[in-house]
Amino acid sequence: MASKPLKTETRGRVAILTLNRPEALNALNSELMNEVCDAVAKYSADEKIGAIVITGSEKAFAAGADIKEMQDQTYMDVFMSDFFARWNEVAYARKPTVAAVAGYALGGGCELAMMCDFIIAADNAKFGQPEITLGVIPGMGGSQRLTRAVGKAKAMDLCLTGRMMDAEEAERSGLVSRVVPADELLETAIGAAEKIANFSLPAVMMAKESVNRSFEVPLDEGLRFERRLFHSLFATEDQKEGMTAFVEKRKAGFKHR
Ligand code: HXC
């Protein structure tokens, strides 16, 4: 029997989703992405979970959408099924998501990583949008999120030439938040997720929403949105606990409410 394409586990308040199609370098087929979306929805709704890590193998985060699944699809097939539309659910998760990327993150793989809140890369990571080599273009945010992350010059370069960029270039360009040795990747990502998951969950969720809002609205609207969320946090027990713990020189014990 084939092994499950997505492995899930929890460690304390962190959920870890591991893409697991080694025979296809974790190429993202519909079955796998449905499982990813289901798992993100499930853990987002689980009050015991405070952050989600999405990772692959040391060789590949994901080498793209599954080309063999797409090869014979017609325009009517992809249009009528709104192919890929559901994948965006990962970006709309309300709980924080961290992509831990080693090896190839190409096409839909790069796009899945960019749907997460931030990307921690192994030093062997390679990012790219090679769809142009297949006669298509990115379909799940590659021309949009990549451009917002790295600017027009690099986004055009990657989308038009299909070349890959290594972890060092990706960090320099602002696509990834940090680069670590490959054998430290997962522990670093889980450590970051644990740290986030132990902060006040409403504050974390609002911080995420506020940063994301900056991509949608003019500065003045964004500043007002941020300020209103900031005000609202004074209605939480966690604000009282966080500030009292600081004054009392002790560690805060957040209740996520
Ligand atoms: C289906 C894939 C695949 C993919 C690799 N494989 N990528 N299968 N879809 N995206 C399969 C290969 O067919 C092969 O299976 C096995 O995985 C190992 O791959 P190799 O090519 O033999 O490995 P290697 O020589 O190490 O080369 C690695 C690679 C290459 C450079 C990453 O596999 C590659 O270029 N892959 C395609 C990358 C790509 O174009 N991605 C974009 C897809 S389009 P067999 O059975 O032969 O052993 C896309 C559109 C997104 O993502 C739109 C919105 C989501």
From TrEMBL:
Gene3D superfamilies in the record: 2-enoyl-CoA Hydratase, Chain A, domain 1 (3.90.226.10), Lyase 2-enoyl-coa Hydratase, Chain A, domain 2 (1.10.12.10)
GO molecular function, one term: 3-hydroxyacyl-CoA dehydratase activity
CDD domains listed in its UniProt record: crotonase-like
Keyword field: Fatty acid metabolism, Lipid metabolism, Lyase
EC code: 4.2.1.17
Class of enzymatic activity (EC top level): lyase
Pfam families linked: ECH_1
Biological processes per GO annotation: fatty acid beta-oxidation
Record bears the keyword Lipid metabolism: yes
Highest taxon, organism lineage: Bacteria
InterPro entries: ClpP/crotonase-like_dom_sf (IPR029045), Enoyl-CoA_hyd/isom_CS (IPR018376), Enoyl-CoA_hydra/iso (IPR001753), Enoyl-CoA_hydra_C (IPR014748)
Catalyzed reactions per annotation: a (3S)-3-hydroxyacyl-CoA = a (2E)-enoyl-CoA + H2O; a 4-saturated-(3S)-3-hydroxyacyl-CoA = a (3E)-enoyl-CoA + H2O
Function: Could possibly oxidize fatty acids using specific components.
Record family assignment: Belongs to the enoyl-CoA hydratase/isomerase family.
Name of the protein in its database record: enoyl-CoA hydratase
Source organism of the structure: Pseudohoeflea suaedae
